[in-house]
Amino acid sequence: MPAITRPWPEGAAMGFDRILSAGDLGYRGKPFNWVTMPDQFTLDATDRLLRAGTDRPRLFAQVALISSHAPWVPVPRLLDWDGLGDGRVFDGMATAGDPPETVWRDRDRVRRAYREAVDYSLATVMDYALRHAADPPLMIVIGDHQAAPGIAMDDRPDTLVHVIGPAHLVDRTAGWGLSCGLIPPDGSALPMDRLRDLILTAFSSRDPVGDRQGTMVPGDGFEPPTRGFSIRCSTN
Prior knowledge:
alpha+beta
């Protein structure tokens, strides 16, 4: 949880076994204004702190990605995952470009920065998924809300849902009305309580017997390089 920078005793009510806040993730680089660290570092810390080693227990984790949070400047760029170190490699990016008080004087610049920040977050998630395509985790990627209507150019509260991972697990979502690839299907959005029930119903039982790697399900113009990788998308 890279956005938690103060004591959060209320977190105990959420039922997590362990909460890793910003100070626990090992980032020693400069913040990107409000954003404490780039999404790439957060995902790398997830591997380093929770998924390292071969004899690891099953893991259910909520990982907050905050590079797409306002003020959206500066926007990081993807680096070599093996060279992130303690995050100081991002320092040049963290101090690049105009500060928020300059960018936010121009609504067109703010909109562009918002678009670029969301693009970075999605690109980072996809690059992380591809990095683990040979032995993929199941990832359910959910946006929490739109930006203000004047920035997002859309006053709907809908956000996207992406289900990425082993084909035999992604196939459990076949009845959700999702579409393959990154383009969401037309139709009504799912309310959050309905999505919760779908997730619990689909993934509360044991894994079906079969090939753990599954089969590759390519999406619209998206070609995973390794077997066992699938992606579906919908609007929530």
